[in-house]
Task: structure prediction
Amino acid sequence: MTERIGIVLAAGEGRRMGCSKALLRLGGRPLADRHACALHETNCSTIAVVVRPADARDVERLFVTSSSELRARLRILVASTRTQAESLAVAFDYLAIEDRPSAHVVVTPVDMLPVAPATLQSLLGAVERGAVAATPVFRGRGGHPVVVRGELLAVYASATSAPRLDRVLNDAGERRVRVAVDDPTVLADYDVPTDCPEPPVLLRSARP
Result:
C-alpha cells in the first residue's frame, strides 16, 4: 500500500476560542488526540502534529497513555508559525515530503472533529485512483480534511513565503477532485465556543 502521512495543523493561539484548540476537549477528549487517533486508524505511518511552543508540553502529555504503536508513529513538531500555511511548510520540511512524492498526505486543521472514517476513505480512494488531490464537498460546500500526493506540496520546499493550501489546490486544476460526501463534519470550523457541537472544556493552562 502507498505510504500514508497525516498532518494536524494545531499551532494557532485560539484567542477567540479562549484556549488552544489543540487542547480543546470535546466528547471528553482533546482535539489533537482525536485527530491523531483517527489518522492512526487510517494507517498513516507517520502522524505529525504541529503545535506552538506554549502548548508543546501539554500536547505531549496527551499521548503518554496512548498505544506504543501510535506513539511510535507520532511526531510533535513545535513551531512559532503565523499561519496554517507556515505550519504545513514546517511539516513538509521535517517529514522530508520532497523525497516522498508518491505518499498520500492527509492534511487537517485541528479546529474540527475528525470526519467519519468513510469520508476519509473516499478521499484517499480518489487519490489512489490517480487524482493529485481530493477535497470533500457537503451540499455544495467545500471543507476539510484534504488528501494530496506528496508531489503537490513541493512548492513548500522553495517558496520564500508559504502559499495557502487552497491556492495550491486551485492551481492543481483538473488534477484535483472534489468528492461529494454525506458528512457535515467536513464544514466545521471552531473559532469560538458557540461554534462547537457541544459545550467545550476550555483548559485554563492552555490560554494564550
The mean pLDDT is 92. The two ends are 41 Å apart (CA to CA). The chain has one domain: 4-187.
